[in-house]
Design goal:
With about 270 residues, the protein is of the alpha/beta class. The protein has ten helices and twelve strands.
């Protein structure tokens, strides 16, 4: 076992309580129920991969975690704090936008599309949120941004604009941007799905490094190899429910549910 992997497993095993708790989460659009009672827990330092066919509710669930989508039932808490809502006695009230934005500071998200500001350099994209949101001094934010660019292998492109970067490079900048806010939880919504195949590897390598460093991550992905090598838990969703979950060796190598088996046979 490598030192990095041992450190990661120790971080997962030593967790006293879950970082994320989702209890019976429901979400519908009109008459269509997209999430039908999702219950999951993620411990500090753990990597969870969400697998499943398109339309299974994976990305919707991910967006509910930071209240980009409001839930219609159940609860989600991160670090012991109810997300998007506050409880007063036995009643639940939705937070105002400012309160929600404050909560999101601790939950980073990397999207399918990179969403970088086209008029800003890579370094400026990374440092703008710490300066504007957390009021970090600009020089300090730039130094931190350079450290993060080094971490994702792009320090030499600090002054490049998004249009001068490949898709894979833009996604690595987006990861560095999420890390700049020092999140306690990092969400990835199919981060390699918009990339050409030859660019996927560099992004997955950065994510594997984050996993080995103990970053708590929830990853919606179709990259089975990444799930097998980096995940502590794999969750297979279909039709808005959790069909099967467990260690990668269990879900990927010895699936029990026919729906899981059929899905894996179609993508492996």
């Amino acid at each position: 076992m490598t030192d990095a992997l041992a450190t990661h497993e120790h971080a997962v095993g030593a967790a006293a309580s879950p970082l994320l708790v989702a209890s019976n989460v429901r979400k519908h659009y009109g008459s269509v129920e997209v999430l039908k009672g999702i219950s999951l827990t993620v411990n500090p330092g753990e990597v969870m991969c969400l697998l499943g066919p398109s339309g299974s509710g994976k990305s919707t669930f991910l967006r509910c975690i930071n209240h980009l989508e409001r839930i219609d039932g159940g609860r989600i808490s991160v670090g012991g704090d109810l997300i998007g809502y506050t409880q007063r006695q036995d009643r639940i009230f939705e937070m105002n936008p400012r309160q929600v934005a404050r909560q999101r500071r601790g939950i980073g998200m990397v999207f399918q599309r990179f969403n970088l500001f086209p008029h800003m350099t890579a370094l400026e994209n990374i440092s703008v949120a710490p300066v504007g949101v957390k009021k970090v001094p600009k020089q300090q934010a730039s130094k931190r941004g350079m450290d993060l660019l080094e971490r994702v292998g792009l320090a030499h492109l600090a002054k490049a604009y998004p249009a001068q970067l490949s898709g894979g490079q833009q996604q690595r900048v987006a990861i560095a941007r999420a890390l700049a806010m020092d999140p306690q939880l990092l969400l990835f919504d199919e981060p390699t799905s918009a990339l050409d195949p030859e660019l996927v590897g560099d992004v997955l390598d950065v994510m594997r490094t984050l996993a080995s460093d103990g970053m708590t991550m929830i990853v919606v992905t179709h990259e089975i190899g990444f799930a097998r090598s980096a995940a502590d838990n794999v969750v297979f969703m279909d039709g808005g429910v959790v069909v099967e979950s467990g260690a990668p060796t269990s879900v990927l190598d010895n699936p029990q549910n026919p729906r899981t088996i059929a899905f894996l046979n179609s993508v492996m």
